Amino acid sequence: MKKRTIKKVLIANRGVPAVRIMHTCRDRKIPTTAVYSTPDRLAYHVFMADTAVHIGEAPPAESYLNMDKMIDAALMSGSDVIHPGWGFLAENEEFAQKVIDAGIVWVGPSPKVIRMMGDKIEAKLIAQKANVPTIPGLNDVTDISQIKKWMKTEKVAFPIMIKASSGGGGKGMVKVENEDQLQQAFAQARSEAKKAFGDEKILVEKYIERGRHIEVQIVADEHGNVVHLFERECTLQRRNQKIIEEAPSPTLDEDLRQEICFTAVRLMREIGYTTAGTVEFIFDSSTKKYYFLEVNTRLQVEHGVTELITGLDIVGIMLDVVMGKKLPFKQTDIRPNRWALEVRLNAEDPKTFSPSFGTITRLEIPHGPGVRIATGVYEGADIPPYYDSLFMLLMTAGADREDAVRTMDRALSRNLRVEGIKTLAPLLLSIIRHPSFISGEFSTRFIEEHMNELISMFKEKGSEDEALKVARYVAEISALGPQKWM
After folding, report:
1. Phi and psi at residue 216, in whole multiples of 5°?
2. Are residues 171 and 302 in the same domain?
3. Alpha-carbon distance 237 to 211, whole Å?
4. Buried b (16+ CB within 10 A) or exposed e, 347-359
5. Mutual orientation of helices 67-77 and 93-101 as an angle, nearest 10°?
6. Which residues are within 8 A (CB) of 262 and not within 5 positions of it... i.e. 6 or more apart?
7. 188 and 233: one domain?
8. pLDDT tens, 187-229?
9. Up-side HSE of residue 335: CA atoms within 13 Å toward CB?
10. How far is CA 201 from the centre of its chain?
11. SUPFAM superfamilies, per this entry (predicted)?
12. Which residues constitute the domain of residue 392?
């Protein structure tokens, strides 16, 4: 296979993912093109890029979801490669095909693979064919009578989960606790699916109580080499969206780890996967069984924790693969030697999860041993109300889990300061200090079960604290008089 060269990379994204990809491109002396909507004209990713192209107004449909404008921006800027990051068009097979048809290199798996894995029903059937365990369920449901019949025949008890067949990110997913909720939940899931993904196809699955969310990072080249970079634990979620991830998982023993990782490799080899992708599983702690959930055909938000424990650059691997290079390592070469933790800093009220947008009037970013930051903002930057609320990823690493958690505590409680907007920081700190988190005993329901307790642990910190410190200092000097050091 002929090796290609990269002249310039357009990042079809904004914020954190755009900045992350630009860092690797800078390391490799590859010029980059940023795209931006009108409210993002002063965004961090725009300043970082070598070239920036305005692609439309604030609504995503007019800018970051506009495929033709993205391709025009690439051609106009002389970019011969497009990296989609995560979110927006990253898992859109139509966009991937348009990029390829325009003679531009697409950084990701083939449009065919994206389409297969983007449909949860088809993905589940392929997983079953590859002998990968799947959750008991019913595909392509059009009426609640089908659900009732399936539950009766298969002896499935509530709760169950109704899911949109397309998409992800927690949209179109509704948990049903009893039969009275079934009709409304079914209608809600179909409505959300239609609105978010343009496809109201639905499937139903048994809800795994006390489930743990385990995912396996895969990298694969165009020469048939498929390697796993071990697993991540992504169990702590709010509204079916992850907020804390770690690697390795505290849930798995070594035998289970090997089994689940090689199961993921087998599936990705079966579908002809290339570049980087993730196989997601739900793990039932009570039975020690795991079940296939989905394949994310893109770079994951939490890829950084895998990079920290393996020392690899996953974005760099993706670029190497599309250049036609072979993976420079074998499975036996991958030996994780650290523990890593990531928290997602979203611009949200930590008590209600309602969005908090505005200008960041003050920003102090954590530093020190074992800390890695992936940010999409700077002090004075605006957080617009039109896009995802994630503005920073805070990662820590240590020799073991206790070490990584201790470093995260320092970063969140002592070194981080964000003013002008509300963030999830108080909630994240409460979680990592909770005895159940410290002991590794938690499930996907942890936040909803412990929310009041977590809120009670918040330590409010505002500008009043600084004023009180100054007042105390002035009072002390006034009382004691001038000191020798003054």
Report:
1. -115, 125
2. no
3. 12
4. bbbbeebeebbee
5. 30
6. 228
7. no
8. 999 988 888 778 888 999 999 888 999 999 999 999 999 999 9
9. 2
10. 24
11. Glutathione synthetase ATP-binding domain-like, PreATP-grasp domain, Rudiment single hybrid motif
12. 211-463
